[in-house]
Amino acid sequence: MGHKAVASDAAAPHVLVFPVPAQGHINCMMHFATGLVAAGLHVTFLHSDHNLRRLGDARAAPAADTPRLRFLSVPDGLPDDHARAIGGGIMGLLESLRTKGSVAYRSLLASLVRGAGDNSNDGFPPVSCVFADGLMPFAVDIAEEIGVPALVFRTASACSVLANMSIPRLFELGELPFRSGDDLDEPVRGVPGMEGFLRRRDLPSYFRTCTENHTDPMVKMLMDVTAHSCRARAVVLNTAASLEGSAVAHIATHVRDVFAVGPLHAMFPAPASNASLWRADDGCMAWLDGQPDRSVVYVSLGSLVTISKEQFTEFLSGLVSAGYPFLWVLRPDMVGASESAALREAVTSAGESKARVVGWAPQLDVLRHRAVGCFLTHAGWNSTVEAAAEGVPMVCWPFFADQQINSRFVGAVWRTGLDMKDVCDRAVVARMIREAMESPKIRASAKALARQVRCDVADGGTSAVEFERLVEFIKNLSTSGGSKRAFLQNGGFQSKLY
């Protein structure tokens, strides 16, 4: 996509981008920040202190090649040895950010509005707009209280956001809560536009723990943040018309404005050093170079999933039985050290030419490599759109959050892969890998979708046009908010704790 500067440095708005400090949220919001910089805006990207220390080389001062992008941080309120969101602990992280991190966030944002922060000599004008992760409503509310216009960025798929918006309707129709013994293959009619293919098992994972009085904490939190998003000035989604046009259209009826501006990684490549909390093993690329075209199964279950010993055993046996070389990303915290050792022993016995195991991989480079034939994935939204944009067939083994509904789109809507949810059986793993690697229909569908996504993100495409509209929206907000910010910069705001 070509990039046009839309503002001079002197007049450019200054946007603060604040993701939930988890890898998947950081990834797409970093690409978003890169796009804003390419459009001529100043961007402050707000990490947690913990993650900025992990990144190491993403310093607070602007880099020479991107002088309008800088990195600051606030505490997340958790001790350094806390696992954060790994293994499903996202609720604890979000609560700590709300109750503890929000205090530092308020203070930092107020200083950046006044232009009196430690980095005021960077040449950055006062902050004029905030983009906050939709899972952190406090970040929007605090910005608006201070006098800074704030928008919501949702890092999940549009289809899952729409499912969350539909929770009250699902209760009205009696499709929630699930009851003991309910057939998970029963159709779901309460999510608009998905009546023809959505089943109970395809709803986001937390729907399975719903109760009559909505007391499940995750479901309550999602209902709250979704209602908050509907009241925000606008909602930004990392998606494209070709992927989720119907869902975006339905969302538009519930929110003040919506921008579908993705897949952002395909529009605005971002340096990995600014985003990845793990150091990638680049040696896997040389290993891929030695494999035949479309012969390798790439396996990655993302940055948060953990698996049991039993799942590990079935999964590994299915991979080996499928008969294809495989590249498996096995994070050190995904299974115990003993499982890591066992896997490496299995790889050794299978032969180094048939398998490669790494702690983390440069996923975009891997998916673009000629040797990769299919992607065995947890169907997190970043991984899903990255594979879609490259035309790589998928086998989806979803775990939680939006992964269930994403995998249904892969298998039943786009038909670019297979959905293996709720099953962990070595025979099924092997069979689905073989089908994804060998099916001409799946590969043709994957390539056709990739062509359409490339049209969406190219100049004049739907996502590119939406991004340009969003930049104009930011500029207008920044202009209209100028008088209030001037008041604040002159001492009109008295800080209060959130």
Automatic annotation (TrEMBL):
Note the SUPFAM superfamilies from the entry: UDP-Glycosyltransferase/glycogen phosphorylase
Specify whether Transferase is a keyword of the entry. Answer: yes
Going by the UniProt record, its keywords in alphabetical order are: Glycosyltransferase, Transferase
Query: Which Pfam families has this protein been placed in?
Result: UDPGT
Xref: InterPro entries? UDP_glucos_trans (IPR002213), UDP_glycos_trans_CS (IPR035595)
Q: Name one GO molecular function term.
A: quercetin 3-O-glucosyltransferase activity
What's its top-level EC category?
transferase
Cell inner membrane recorded as keyword: no
Gene3D superfamilies in alphabetical order: Glycogen Phosphorylase B (3.40.50.2000)
Per the UniProt entry, the Enzyme Commission number(s) are: 2.4.1.-
PANTHER family assigned to the protein according to its UniProt record, in alphabetical order: GLUCOSYL/GLUCURONOSYL TRANSFERASES (PTHR11926), GLYCOSYLTRANSFERASE (PTHR11926:SF1392)
Protein name as catalogued: Glycosyltransferase
Q: Which organism is it from?
A: Leersia perrieri
